[in-house]
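seq:
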Amino acid sequence: MAAAVIGQTAPDMELETSSAKETCQSTLLALREPGQAMVVDFFAPWCKACPKAAQKMDELAEQHSGRCQFVLVCVDGSIEEARNFAATHGIQRCIITAVVDEDAPQSYGVSGLPHTTVIAPSGKVAKNGNHTEVTLPDDLDAVLATEDAILPAPRQSRVSEARRPNHMGNFRTLTVAILAVGAEEIDLAQDSKDWVNLNEGEQHFIKHVLAFFAASDGIVLENLASQFSSEIQIPEARAFYGFQIAMENIHSETYSLLIEQYIKDPSERENLFDAIHTMPPVREKAHWAVQWMNREASFAERLVAFAAVEGVLFSGSFCAIFWLKKRGLMPGLTFSNELISRDEGLHADFACLLYQMLQNKLPEEIVHDIIRGAVEVERKFICDALSCDLVGMNKDLMTQYIEFVADRLLTALGHSKIFGVANPFDWMELISLQGKTNFFEKRVGEYQKAGVMAGATDSLSAFSLNEDF
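struct:
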């Protein structure tokens, strides 16, 4: 029973609390300070092992002031008895409480005393059990370390490779990979000719895909600007999110350009730009992403979910557009798709890198539940709602491809695969792989720039202001 609550939102319970002047009613969760962890020690005045555990709590309360709260909950005795217990054993820094309902501690599986529960800053139960199952301070340190990536980090304002030698190279690799081609450089002349020759089903499919892309970029931007960028305090990560926001704005501009180019009717264009409200298939998919902007979910859960947004929820649509490229159609659309899909692959890779830095990963079943949800939403969107057979693709193979991409994301996150399927499309390279466009045949969709991410031998051809011309 004690283990069952781990990973769940901490159950609440009515408590009596005590100060020097008065006794008042409250609840456990009402005592929580936003953004702080909480350690709860269930005790009884008659318990022989409880004084030592309470004194340990009091020591930790001094060490972790401002980061964690420490609460003593008397499960067998009045608030007066709890107060006397604290006074007798020199407890000065812990919050002293007593349960109102003697059955309330059962929600935490309390069967012996002392019993300790560690609640993460997210409000989820991280550790729960007796003195053999929860070890302080080690378990508390592990929970706080999990949040180090997002909590303020004093004296860490400098981006430095020396501080994070294992990750700085990866951050640099990702941050130099900026979309180098703006929307205005995409040639849409042939697209206009191809568009009028597409049948009604193909046009319907592309319209919905572009509508979702335009809406989803807004969701991703909102999450980055209002949540992740303000939560994360690692300088390298914040720098990356700055680049990502710029890239997402370029994507948004590109989708707007494509919609304006293909859709001539002003009212239909407005419906596409407002697709979350006007197109049920787009609305359902967008709502799945929006639900993970709720801060009641832990940072780790939201990080995995938005990795799934960019790594899974785009996969079927990207694949379908690559299928158009295979057919030699819509070169402007397919080239922009090549660039943007590579961006989104990098963003998902970065989320996986950041997740790997968390010391306490999510339980595998929680990660699997998130990824399964993303796969089902994408399958319903691309195979059922839009019906990918409109552009000549097999629904069963498309479902398998989405599952294949999801397994790849799980592997990058460090978790086991769910589906165990192969890539059904031998012509479909994974989004994050390097393109093989010949530079002299077409503008290259590669990220690598002269002198950046290049080997020593490449530096000979790098541009230099010291060269003689």
